[in-house]
Amino acid sequence: MFMNTEERRKQLLERLEHTDKPLTGSFLAREFAVSRQIIVGDIGIIRAMGKNIYATPRGYIIPSPKVTDKGIMATIACRHDVVGLKTELETIVDYGGFVRDVIVEHPLYGELRGDLMLATRHDVAMFLQKMAACKASPLLLITGGVHLHTLEVPDTMTLERIRQELKRQGILAEES
To answer: Which end of the chain is more exposed for a tag (fewer CB within 10 A), N or C?
Structure first.
C-alpha cells in the first residue's frame, strides 16, 4: 500500500508515541517500506515540527510523560577512562537513576550531547555492546575523561546515594 510522505510521517509519529521501547531506523524502514535514510529524514522533519524524539544507541524514542514529568533532574560531572564507563553507568542505574545523556565540552564545537536513555543494567549492556560492535569511542575521550550526565531520579535521597557511591569509586568529578 502506497502512502504519501505526509501520511508516512504522521504514522511514524504515532508509532513512536505508542511505544515505550526504542525503535531502530532499520526496523522503521522495513515497517514503512522505505529506506533507513528516508526514516532519518522524516525524523528530522518531525523534530523540526517540535516533537521531542531522542536518537539513542538503541533507536528512536519519544520519552514518556513518566520519564519527563516525574522526579528530579540533576547534572553530575564525572571523570574516568573507558574502563570506568561500565562501572559508572551500572552504579547510576543500580542506585535508581535514569541516565538521560552524556555531555562534553569540545574545544572547537562547544557542547556535544548524546542521548543515552539508560534505565537498567540491560540498557547499559546493550549500549556497551553497540559501542563495541561499531568500534565507536565514547565522548569522554574528547575531554580526557571529564563529562556530564543528566540524570533523572525519583527523589533527593536517591540522587545523594548515587553521588556518594560515585564519589567513593573515584568517578564523581564535581557537581553542576
So the answer is: N
In sequence order, the β-bridge partners of residue 74 are 151
Count of CB atoms within 10 A of residue 170's CB? Answer: 12
Distance CA 82, CA 135 (A): 13
78 and 158 co-located in one domain: yes
E strands, 18-153, in order = 54-56, 59-61, 72-79, 98-106, 110-118, 146-153
Residue 5: which residues within 8 A CB-CB, separation 6 or more? 42
Query: 0.85 exceeded by the pTM?
Result: no
What cell numbers appear for 13 in the block? Answer: 509519529
Measure the CA angle with vertex 136, ends 24 and 88; round to 5°: 90
* pLDDT tens readout for residues 67-102: 445 588 888 989 999 999 999 999 999 999 999 999
> Exposed e or buried b for every residue in 116-145, given b needs 16+ CB within 10 A?
bbbbeeebbebbbeeeeeeeeebbbebbeb
Please, how many CA atoms are within 13 Å of residue 90, restricted to the half-sphere of its CB?
11
- Residue 64's pLDDT band, with cuts at 50, 70 and 90, is low
Domain that holds residue 96: 65-175
